[in-house]
Amino acid sequence: MPAEPVPFKVADLSLAEFGRNEIRLAQHEMPGLMALREEFGGSRPLANARITGSLHMTIQTAVLIETLVALGAQVRWASCNIFSTQDHAAAAVVVGPDGTPDDRRGVPVFAWKGETLEEYWWCTEQALTWPDELGPNMLLDDGGDATLLVHKGAEVEDAGLVPDSSDDEPEEWRVVLGVLRASLATDPLKWTKVAGQILGVTEETTTGVHRLYEMAKEGTLRFPAINVNDSVTKSKFDNKYGTRHSLVDGINRATDTLIGGKIAVICGYGDVGKGCAEALRGQRARVIITEIDPICALQAAMDGYQVSRLEDVIEEADIFVTATGNLRIITAEHMSRMKHQAIVGNIGHFDNEIDITGLGRLPGIRRNTIKPQVDEWIFPDGHAIIVLSEGRLLNLGNATGHPSFVMSSSFTNQVLAQIELFTRTDQYPLGVHVLPKQLDERVARLHLDALGVRLTELSKEQATYIGVPVEGPYKPDHYRY
Amino acid sequence: MSSETGSGRDGGFGSYIADPGLAEGGLARIAWAERAMPVLGLLREECASKQPFAGRSIAACLHITAETAILAGVLTAGGGRVHLAASNPLSTQDDIAAALASQPGVFVNAKTGVDRETYYAHLHRALDGAPDLVVDDGGDLVNTLHADRPELLPAVVGGCESTSTGVARLRQMAAAGTLAFPVVAADVSVTRRMFDNGHGTSQSVIDGLLRATNILLAGKTVVVAGYGSSGSAIADRAAGFGAQVIVTEIDPVRALDAIMRGHRVLPMAEAAPVGDVFITATGSRDVITGEHLAAMRDGAVLANAGHFDVEIDVRALGDLAVRVNRGIRPYADEYVLAGGSRLILLADGRVVNLIAAEGNPAAVMDLSFAAQVLALMWLISGEAGLPADLHPMPAAIDTEVARLTLAAHGTRIDELTAAQREYLASWRQGS
Lengths: 481, 431
What we know:
The complex is a heterodimer. Chain A has 19 helices and 15 strands.
């Protein structure tokens, strides 16, 4: 029990009871995490781990955080998106299962729904700034912002100065540089010290993993990383089944538009795009895919989707969703050509897939906020489009993200990755690693009972015949599932 | 070689078929189909004991398939004499015709590939039996009866027509006041729509398309003309194969339904240049015209699922072609157009599921024919008391068909309790 009251900055601690109720419901839907609590609650493999997490502060994340705590870890948390925090979840985590708003016994959380960019990076810095000289020794990242701040901070400290920012750069970059400028002035070795203590990072999502591989290639990566995203039980489940659930939820909550009969364009046919396309087809929209990769494009065509260029369908579609992980997919010029009341949203990690800044700079355009995270942008000729969550992740901004069960699969990988990196540090040299397949299969196994799945067991003879151990792993590493 | 069998037998009636020697193979196929037609099996038992058609003559114009043979067996088991003519010369299965001709009480006039003149001669021979009842599939038999054999009309008690195409023709006759007896429109029965058009035609049309071409449907653009009960099911199945589906329609309600089910709807002129496969299922004519054909992509496949061969303008296709490679596969002809593009026409533009495949699966025809047998029993019993007009299939027959089918499948359903019946009745009264 910490002697000091738990530090925090959340929207409203009085929401804690509501949050706790939802956490209780979510625990039932997160059998993988609960099984880990059961298995490791006694041995506490994460004792002495000081974990800074930067990941959407939702109810499901609350179950993750409290699982890490049950396994012995100390934890500080920020969200990785300005809109994705569920304020009742944040409050409940701060208060803790045994505390009250006046007697907080939970985990320090710095997150609320609707942060400004300055506030967002302040929160990230708070999560990385522990009360004593000891910083975090583990990162749990989603999108790589915590990893980025530590790396850029240490880089800036090596150089001894913060580069000037220009107007051409995204606004967010100027905010990051502002944070680093301030920390350089007060503690010129802050991030170098933090980076030096970190044993490793476990990264949740495609975008963050991409950044890690880039850093590893450039030789700038300062600690080992486990790519959780590419566990089969993460990327296939969370990216595909999670978005399949929450995309439609987000569009419905935001607009309540009838999806059946509409024309929907999905940009990108990776795992996320596939889930989105299936969901919208399930609602009987006519789905059109845009792709740059011939393999994914062919997959889409063979799945029965029309594959077109965005330019060619921009005037006919009713719904546009970006799921590429790339930037400038939908430009301001595209949006100006869309149908009246076309719906535009992004389900990729960052808000750079749709050029909202460019949209706002169009001469004569007006923005009319219908409700939070739903904006009507009215062009000078009177026609308008509806932009969801300002181009940020609409399934989190307009709905509640992936459902608990999907996140259980994803987060069970996170916890196993944290245990691996923290307890078997010497097995993971500097670089980016994926979880061993046995652990991937274990994550899946932990979720079967809850769904009433009865797995068939290989006989010894059968196992020998296909050349695998009876207990797995069953597939070669290159198997694509 | 045509064969005339049993001249002088059974009051002078005989059969005109290709080869009586094929009977044994045909009987084996009929026995196979019988396994999938348990409802007709139940009706045959009922007919055998009640003899509803005793001494009656039934003229039937139907596709000469194993399923039709089972129907004929039910009618003869009920005491009737069946005079059959083929409703499409290309769909006649000669082994089935031979097998039927070997059965007592059945007279068959059908041979695959006969010309138009012979086709009509066969209709006349079926009418020579002086029918009490007529069973039609497309309306040619009823039409010929009215146009050329008016002396037979007074004896006709009634009939039934199984296709939408035939029903449309009969509706014209009824409107003009020329229909001389009551006809039950079997195409609009619920069971027929659901099973025959919906489940049966769509499966067998895809079957015909695949047998004739072996084309991979995933990734292809399939244009379905007409989103009625057949077309909508064809479209949904094509989508299930991973094809992109484009629907063409003339009816705004059907077009809206197609849109709401996630299909793309375009005019044929815009669909023509983008489709890989075209399937017509409209019941109308000139759905795919020369102008459309000229705009099509190299390798486009053309198939008609509608009853008549007028949906694709085959003559225009011939006019456009500089060369025709007949029979590049069974039931597939390649038309090479002046620009070099090659269009593949299946089954000469005739109904593809019956010609390139085996028509509706027997299980579907089981329901369709069971409804018609019940309709004929109702008409001949005198209970119907219907005026000379086109009449919908009575709901009671639909319900009976569904009941028999469930019984044959061993499926049990719930029954309303007395309290539920009362509740529903009072709800209807608005209390």
